[in-house]
């Protein structure tokens, strides 16, 4: 019997599954290395003991061998070991020529890791379903040309939050650097809200001279001042009634107007310049700024009471350099519009796209779109390449550790192969590696080949 096991032992040791063998008396005869690793137990703790004894000593929770012996058929159970490991074990009976039970061979698989992955998958599915619910009205409602790229986790979470707050009238303060898309997010909130069929009035507080801003915001009565219209003029707040008013660059608002704006937001009524009758308002107020209003409050250049009135729901749009997953889709979206408008078929090379991703984009989305349009107009070639870009390579292979420099060189070689051969299979063949190896390298080096070709 021992000789028989010894003869097949090399095959058992090469097996990745845990293997345990007991005889017809339920005595443990053999465990392979995989079984020892999975159970975190040594052979001395198992060999020579009956499986019923292992149960009594608390080494295993239940004996699958006993079930096989009683039923003379294959059985599977979840078996817990004293080490805390939970395994899926399957016992299979082996009979001799007289159909007498000789051995029971048990295979073991670790379900601890499977359970962890299962829980992670369930959590991911739950989160995905939440995002789908939050974003479902994006497809079902008329968003009226509001196009927001949201491939990065940060932007997906931001849009999910924006969808939620769109259903209520709480004031929203949109924060972010210049060019990140604050006005686009304001439009998204409005057109995702119950007010979507009502006016959306936008005013840039920094683009209108201070002496004209008050009349633009609040309107005026006939004869209120020199050069006033004979019939007077409604202000932006009146025009936005029943809808949404978006006050961009709110940090540019003069202090004297901040007091009047605060009164409007507190009472939800406005009085025209030169008028005496207040006009009731039913509006949603969204403000935006690229300035640190909290710091401006400390220096008394922005009123604290107004700050807390508009900062009920703050939404911060991260800069483009911190959401690189959005760069390729933004490039593709902008280029598709230009190609369609002018009947062209221009594209960026993979190496050029790589440089666009590595660039820090101080001007964010606005800068990206402007550069793409400039290149589209100025470059005659169909393929826009690295040498056409208006900025130098941002990552030098002369910087970083040896490993980082080697990875950069490897990345450039792969990009060149993909650019030349167009498909993963042909590029892998040219590089002398398997397509699966190339796929893994692309994932490791963050080469978004699938995104580029969608």
Automatic annotation (TrEMBL):
Superkingdom: Bacteria
NCBIfam families per record: sensory_box
Coiled coil: 114-141
Domain (PAC) ranges: 71-123
Domain Sigma-54 factor interaction, chain residue ranges per copy: 148-377
SUPFAM superfamilies xref list: Homeodomain-like (SSF46689), P-loop containing nucleoside triphosphate hydrolases (SSF52540), PYP-like sensor domain (PAS domain) (SSF55785)
SMART domains reported in the protein's UniProt record: AAA
Listed PANTHER family: C4-DICARBOXYLATE TRANSPORT TRANSCRIPTIONAL REGULATORY PROTEIN DCTD, TRANSCRIPTIONAL REGULATORY PROTEIN
One Pfam match: PAS_9
PAS domain residues: 4-49
Keyword terms, alphabetized: ATP-binding, Coiled coil, Nucleotide-binding, Transcription, Transcription regulation
Protein name: PAS domain S-box-containing protein
CDD domains attached to this UniProt entry: AAA, PAS
InterPro entries, per the entry: AAA+_ATPase (IPR003593), AAA_lid_NorR (IPR058031), Homeodomain-like_sf (IPR009057), HTH_Fis (IPR002197), P-loop_NTPase (IPR027417), PAS (IPR000014), PAS-assoc_C (IPR000700), PAS-like_dom_sf (IPR035965)
């Amino acid at each position: 019997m021992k000789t028989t096991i010894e003869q097949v032992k090399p095959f058992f040791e090469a097996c990745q599954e845990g293997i345990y063998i007991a005889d017809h008396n339920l005595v443990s005869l053999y465990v392979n290395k995989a079984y020892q690793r999975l159970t975190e137990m040594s052979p001395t703790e198992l060999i020579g003991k009956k499986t019923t004894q292992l149960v009594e000593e608390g080494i295993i929770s239940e004996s699958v061998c006993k079930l096989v012996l009683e039923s003379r058929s294959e059985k599977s159970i979840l078996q817990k070991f004293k080490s805390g490991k939970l395994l899926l074990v399957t016992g299979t009976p082996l009979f001799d020529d007289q159909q007498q039970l000789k051995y029971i061979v048990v295979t073991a698989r670790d379900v601890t890791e499977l359970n962890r992955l299962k829980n992670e998958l369930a959590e991911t599915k739950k989160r995905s379903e939440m995002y789908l619910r939050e974003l479902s009205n994006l497809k079902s409602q008329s968003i009226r040309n509001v196009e927001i790229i949201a491939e990065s986790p940060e932007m997906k979470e931001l849009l999910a939050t924006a969808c939620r707050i769109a259903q209520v009238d709480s004031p929203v303060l949109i924060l972010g650097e210049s060019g990140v898309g604050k006005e686009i997010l304001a439009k998204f909130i409005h057109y995702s809200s119950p007010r979507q069929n009502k006016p959306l009035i936008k005013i840039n507080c920094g683009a209108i001279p201070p002496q004209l801003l008050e009349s633009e915001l609040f309107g005026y009565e006939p004869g209120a001042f020199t050069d006033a219209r004979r019939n007077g003029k409604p202000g932006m707040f009146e025009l936005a009634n029943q809808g949404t008013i978006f006050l961009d660059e709110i940090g540019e608002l003069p202090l004297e107007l901040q007091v009047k704006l605060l009164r409007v937001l507190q009472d939800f009524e406005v009085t025209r310049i030169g008028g005496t009758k207040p006009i009731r308002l039913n509006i949603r107020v969204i403000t935006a700024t690229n300035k640190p209003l909290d710091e401006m409050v400390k220096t008394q250049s922005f009123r604290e009471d107004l700050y807390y009135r508009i900062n009920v729901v703050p939404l911060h749009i991260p800069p483009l350099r911190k959401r690189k997953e959005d760069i390729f889709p933004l490039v593709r979206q902008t280029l598709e519009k230009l190609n369609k408008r002018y009947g062209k078929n221009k594209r960026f090379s993979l190496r050029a796209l790589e440089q666009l991703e590595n660039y820090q984009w101080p001007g964010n989305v606005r800068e990206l779109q402007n550069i793409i349009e400039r290149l589209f107009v100025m470059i005659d070639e169909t393929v826009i390449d690295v040498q056409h870009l208006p900025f130098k390579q941002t990552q030098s292979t002369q910087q970083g550790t040896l490993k980082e420099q080697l990875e950069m060189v490897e990345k450039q070689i792969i990009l060149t192969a993909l650019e030349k051969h167009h498909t993963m299979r042909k590029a892998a063949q040219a590089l002398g590696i398997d397509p699966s190896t190339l796929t893994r390298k692309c994932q490791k080096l963050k080469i978004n080949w699938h995104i580029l070709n969608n």
